[in-house]
């Protein structure tokens, strides 16, 4: 009897889906399209055994091309709810491979709210499986740390931090209490310098620092480590910083001190109309 009841309920849900959702997710009114996507996201999250498969996910994927920003936004927030649950990751692999390029392109969406949520979704994708995103995919997000729009830049800063700065070598556990040049932050500071130089936007160190300030404050405020890298002799087997790298580190260090003292974003960064500048 339980099985019969379950079958009956699933038949009713399928009838509702085919009779209502399939027609209304393309409704002429954007608000109705947004409601449809929001609800199917809830269905897939609450009843993943029945709804979390490509037969239903594809509707969210298709709707990411919707002409209205509010609808595209609902697609991304619905997907975030799914990717956040690591137990569901295996069921999302096909969807990810099929629609990943679209999500990456949405990081440059003309609607800032959509761009921010696209970056946050890619951060969740990154945490679920690092192999999914190619180096080119990541590069497209990295550049956004120089965006003139702060929410976009901060979201990109968190993505950058999770990708390049959050992994720690198990061997570091034994040197966590070491300071200066021998601290675990030393390699991370160098990574930041290398990234800054490779991005070739050398007049925008303040933008880079501001983008990562919320997620990497401890690293950016480790001035003792930065001083040690500049003043102390390299450890055995360690490559010394070049003059160019030292100059970049000094510039980054000055920007972190200014950020800590002034507590506001650099000039030119706010909620303006441009998505990103270089």
TrEMBL record:
Family label: Belongs to the SCC3 family.
Instruction: List the PANTHER family hit by this protein, alphabetically.
Output: COHESIN SUBUNIT SA-2, STROMAL ANTIGEN
Domain SCD residue range list: 21-106
* PROSITE patterns the UniProt entry points to: SCD
Q: Which organism is it from?
A: Chunga burmeisteri
Q: Which protein is depicted?
A: STAG2 protein
**What processes does the entry annotate via GO biological process terms?**
sister chromatid cohesion
Any one cellular-component term (Gene Ontology):
nucleus
Give the highest taxon in the source lineage. Answer: Eukaryota
A molecular function (GO) held by this record is: chromatin binding
Q: Which InterPro entries match?
A: ARM-type_fold (IPR016024), Cohesin_Scc3/SA (IPR039662), HEAT_SCC3-SA (IPR056396), SCD (IPR020839)
The gene for this chain is Stag2_0
């Amino acid at each position: 009897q339980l099985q019969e009841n379950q079958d009956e309920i699933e038949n009713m849900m399928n009838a509702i889906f085919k009779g209502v959702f399939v027609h209304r997710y393309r409704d002429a009114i954007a608000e109705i399209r947004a409601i449809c996507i929001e609800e199917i996201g809830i269905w897939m999250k609450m009843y993943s055994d029945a709804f979390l498969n490509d037969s239903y996910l594809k509707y969210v994927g298709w709707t990411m091309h919707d002409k209205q920003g509010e609808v595209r936004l609902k697609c991304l927030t619905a997907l975030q709810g799914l990717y956040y649950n690591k137990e569901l990751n295996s069921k999302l692999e096909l969807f990810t491979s099929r629609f990943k390029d679209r999500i990456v392109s949405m990081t440059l969406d003309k609607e800032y709210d959509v761009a921010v949520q696209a970056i946050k979704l890619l951060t969740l994708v990154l945490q679920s499986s690092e192999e999914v995103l190619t180096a080119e995919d990541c590069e497209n997000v990295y550049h956004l740390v120089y965006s003139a729009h702060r929410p976009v830049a901060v979201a990109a800063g968190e993505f950058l931090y999770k990708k390049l700065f959050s992994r720690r070598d198990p061997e570091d556990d034994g040197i966590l209490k070491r300071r200066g040049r021998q601290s675990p932050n030393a390699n991370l500071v160098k990574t930041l310098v290398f990234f800054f130089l490779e991005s070739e936007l050398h007049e925008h160190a303040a933008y880079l620092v501001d983008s990562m300030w919320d997620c990497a404050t401890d690293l950016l405020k480790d001035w003792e480590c930065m001083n040690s890298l500049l003043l102390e002799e390299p450890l055995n087997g360690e490559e010394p910083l070049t003059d160019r790298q030292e100059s970049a580190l000094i510039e980054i260090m000055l920007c972190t001190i200014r950020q800590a003292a002034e507590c506001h974003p650099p000039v030119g960064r706010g909620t303006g109309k441009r998505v990103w500048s270089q």
